[in-house]
Amino acid sequence: MSLLDAQGLYAGYGGVDILRNTHLRLGADEIVVIVGPNGAGKSTAMKAVFGLVPIREGRVHYQGEDITNRPPERMVTRGIAYVPQEANVFPSLSVLENLELGAYALRGDHRPRLEKVFEIFPRLKERRNQQAGVMSGGERQMVAMGRALMVEPRLLMLDEPTAGLSPRLIDETFERIREVNQLGIGVLMVEQNARQALAIADRGYVLATGENRYEDTGPALLANPEVAEMFLGG
Amino acid sequence: MVEVIQLLINGILLGSILALGAVGATMIFGVLRFAHFAHGDFMAVGAYFALSVVTVFNLPVLAALPVAMAATAGLAVAIDQLVYRRIRRVQPVILLISSFATALVLRSLIQMIWGSSNQVYQTGIQLPWRIGPFTLKPDHLLIFLAATGLVITVHLFLTRTRLGKAMRAMSDNMNLALITGIPADRVIMATWAIGGALAAAAGVFLGMDTRLHPVMGWTLLLPIFAATILGGIGRPYGAIFGGLVIGCAMELSTLIIPGSYKPAVAFAIMVATLVFRPQGIIKGTV
């Protein structure tokens, strides 16, 4: 059984479908990347899965359970965490408070979870009393991912985690994503840095105008000349 | 010089009353994104609740304070559930206008229940203390200490409790709070309860300092919003600072212009802030 299985999604804002018969599947330990040109509906697909964009038609199953159009707080308690591309930290709160709030929907002691996040991002432990809003882009991205990991997710959804980062930080971010995945967390992400993302991905989807175009293993998509020509810049 | 210091003492007193109102108004703005026009009337209702406790049970006014705060908190939550909650998803301007209507209803209710004439908690004259050339009424010290205590309590709530942090988070980034799974409804309810309780305290203190009348809160609404804007709207610590600055400025202005222009001073500061520094005078957020 797959961790996430979205079939035939039609979703969008104000009655206009951005997704048209989109489908996505993710196995429990996989990294799956969604690539495609601007306006393809990549981010919308993630938001629809997480209940932030209403799904008009189609179903989303998570561990066999129908979670179509559930509110985000229900997603969180089931172990799905989502990191938006922009405005993904609470700027006036400290790093520690950002992380604590990540686990708001969960009961019990937060300290073991916090320690785990600090293990993955030691930098956050050093800077835990820093206000998140004054940190660098790379550090904010760590805070955002750390916040999502506080719910001990089984599925982590990342919307363009490397957007606006320097090449060195991009490498580091992908490295962290691999580490997170090795903890047994499924990762679904949208990426502009398609080559690098596909290189670490188990599988990838190419979306265009809300429809699935290609779907294959990461290396196979990278090697596919049509995909390369259309979406990876030749 | 003596006169300036005396006015500063009065200003700090007025400022701490304004600060209590402004903290609540700014928190409501932060979480719900609308200027709550009935906030001044929450103050008046709180003051009259305390008056009933004082007259019915013959208690000192400070003993009536917690009762008035709790009752006003309950009223604020009830009004939110009855009125504001239903229109929260439409435009903020509709919320603003409905809060204006709520203000009128509350004021009329006060007139119906408690009458429209001036009233006081205590009759008789309180002898002021003389400290050198300065005078200070014992009530003033009580008000200042109680207001300080309340502000510290709010600070501890916002920084030490889960709900307080969730409130700051919602005020920071509503979307992310939703994505994080913070229960918006519960946070909104708590915001109203705290806003109502603080407004009631401000109203009681104002009643102790002067007298009670149905428009006592309405007339302070402008200085309260001036304080929230000066401190950066949505920022509780800014509102405290803003309240103190506006309070002192209003009192000090009487050195130069007639006292009846005090609200105009608050208005002028508000306009100047909006023109030159709309994000407020405090840099960053706390």
Overview of the structural elements:
The complex is a heterodimer of chains A (234) and B (286). Chain A has helices spanning 42-49, 72-78, 95-102, 111-120, 122-126, 137-149, 167-182, 194-200, 218-223, 225-231, and strands at 4-13, 16-26, 31-35, 55-62, 65-66, 80-83, 155-159, 186-190, 203-208, 211-217. Chain A has a six-stranded mixed beta sheet with strand order 6-7-8-3-9-10, sandwiched between helices. A four-stranded antiparallel beta sheet of chain A has the order 2-1-4-5, covered by helices on one side. Chain A is α/β, with parallel strands linked by helices and 234 residues long. Chain A contains ten helices and ten strands. In chain A, a hairpin with a 2-residue loop joins β4 and β5 (65-66). The N and C termini of chain A lie far apart (36 Å). In chain A, α3 packs parallel to α6 (137-149). By secondary structure, chain B is mostly helical. Chain B has one domain (2-276): ABC transporter involved in vitamin B12 uptake, BtuC (Orthogonal Bundle), CATH 1.10.3470. In chain B, 72% of the residues lie in helices and 2% in strands. Chain B has eleven helices and two strands. A two-stranded antiparallel ribbon of chain B has the order 1-2. The longest helix of chain B has 31 residues, at 2-32. The radius of gyration of chain B is 18 Å and the shape is globular. Chains A and B meet through α2 and α3 of A and α6 and α7 of B.
